[in-house]
Design a protein that fits this description.
Helices cover about 85% and strands about 0% of the residues. It has about 280 residues and is mostly helical.
Length: about 280
């Protein structure tokens, strides 16, 4: 008995979608492997890496810091109102600090960078791909992965943690500003409650996640950019696709990274790192 035409079409469409996803995953994995391979080659692109670090970190700092500042202010406003019902309003700093160090600082920074940097990388490389500039680099005997992909991945991997540190500081500061001006919580007591609940291990866990976020955002932007087809219309589609994939990747990986970091002896690792520099 043959399957109904509608069911057959659905199975074919599902099969094509699954095969397409597997093909995309394979090409993505090859890009990761080839990028690690070119790291040890001669002619490391120091100048381009510094230029990309400036483009990713410095040029993203304004929007990241504004986002962190006002998120911290809103969080303090909401937290103090909720804690006031239980007479615990003075301890607003504990909740703002812990939330920003562990989650809000890393994730918000990564999402903002995914929207700005992920789109920029995919648009830039996509334009170079459809205009055959990438092919011209190969024709000249250079490796596009070393010249174009590696600098952006390194800049994203090390630039995002730096942005996250500043975002955490400014977010906690914004919360303290609202706590002082709106609720009369003195800055000294606010910082004391932050230090009481937030330890160096918490700070290390939050910032460590952004290394993976930055690597993934830059890698997705590069992969989508260098596989762009379809001319200028394809560049627009690739830009949107890169932002969506990078943002979803940040949210999904945040769960698994948080689960992993909770299982690791972070305090012992931190003490070991401190001991190395004594």
């Amino acid at each position: 008995m043959s399957a109904a035409p509608g069911a057959s079409s659905l199975l074919q469409a599902t099969g094509r979608r699954v095969l397409g996803m597997l093909d995309e995953l394979g090409r993505f994995s090859l890009l990761v492997a080839r990028t690690f391979r070119v790291m040890g080659r001669r002619g490391f692109p120091f100048r381009e890496t510094l230029r990309q670090f400036e483009a990713i970190t410095v040029r993203s700092s304004t929007i990241v810091l504004i986002t962190a500042l006002f998120t911290g202010m809103v969080l303090a406003l909401q937290t103090a109102t909720a804690l006031g019902r239980f007479g615990a309003k003075p301890y607003t700093g504990s909740f703002v600090g812990l939330a920003f160090v562990l989650e809000l600082g890393p994730v918000l920074t990564a999402l903002v960078v995914a929207g700005r940097v992920g789109a920029g990388i995919s648009a830039e490389l996509g334009s170079m791909t459809v205009s055959e500039q990438v092919d011209a680099i190969r024709a000249l005997g250079a490796d596009p992965l070393q010249k174009l992909v590696l600098p952006r991945i390194l800049a994203g991997t090390f630039g995002l943690p730096a942005l996250t540190v500043f975002a955490i500081v400014l977010g906690v500061f914004g919360g303290g500003l609202v706590a002082d001006l709106q609720y009369g919580i003195t800055p000294s007591f606010y910082l004391q409650t932050v230090r009481t609940i937030v330890g160096p291990a918490d700070f290390l866990s939050g910032v460590a996640k952004t290394v993976v976020f930055g690597f993934g955002i830059a890698l997705v932007g590069c992969h989508v950019g260098i596989t762009t087809t379809g001319g200028t219309a394809g560049v627009g589609r690739a830009t949107t696709r890169a932002v969506v994939i990078a943002s979803i990747g940040v949210l999904v990986s945040d769960f698994f990274l948080t689960k992993l970091l909770l299982l690791l002896p972070t305090d012992a690792l931190l003490r070991g790192l401190v001991g190395l520099f004594r």
